Amino acid sequence: MSTLNILCAICSEYFKQNDTIYSTRCGHVFHKRCLFRWLRRSLTCPQCRKNCLKHNCHQLYINFVETVPNENGTEIEFPKCYDWLYIEPDMDMTDIESFALKFGQDEEGNVIYAARGRFNGDLIPGYYVPQKKSVIVPWGFKSHTTTDDIELLDISNDNAEYKWVAATNGDIPENAFATGHTIMGDVLYTARAKHENMILYGKLHQRYNSAYVPFKDLEICTSTYEILVRKPKKNTTTDVQL
């Protein structure tokens, strides 16, 4: 089965197997491209007109395979996982702390969280600073601050442990997970490294065997780093063990 007998209420097309599908808080479903285009001009659900913000919309992972009865009659438990939530300007610290993955502090002492942002066509892992309402990402030998299309890593429904694993020269440890990509399709990972007695957070670009972290106005390159990994477990926490 390659399509569902369900229409996107915006474009009136049936959902297909390779579509990215999102649900609003009120339960209506749309293509991601359709919904986010709509939300650029209206902060309401396209279907019922209730208030709707991007960070309250979640991606749906739909099984297009025909279902079969469970042999032992037990209820099937769907796997828990992380998600990426778009942040809104009016989101406060209480909202962020309820779902986001806390990294630590930046060089100014501000609390920071796992995030990613777009710059020059790349979707780049970095960190979000609530006090600045910005995500900081490394790109092109410089540190960049962006306020557009910021996504925070949501682990509120995840049953996994997040930790840092040391690696060098482009190596990717077990349980590492992709958190971004370049415009050319290269996968990027969330990384951290030490510089001037500080822990800095940025990206690993395996093509160049190096991690890149923002520091002041610069992008620092290093072949010695740690990668954020996700290991399933029974209990989860919202803070990375630093």
TrEMBL record:
Stored PROSITE patterns: ZF_RING_2
GO molecular function annotation: zinc ion binding
Xref: SUPFAM superfamilies: RING/U-box
Gene3D superfamilies in the cross-refs: Zinc/RING finger domain, C3HC4 (zinc finger) (3.30.40.10)
UniProt superkingdom: Eukaryota
RING-type domain ranges (all copies): 8-49
Entry protein name: RING-type domain-containing protein
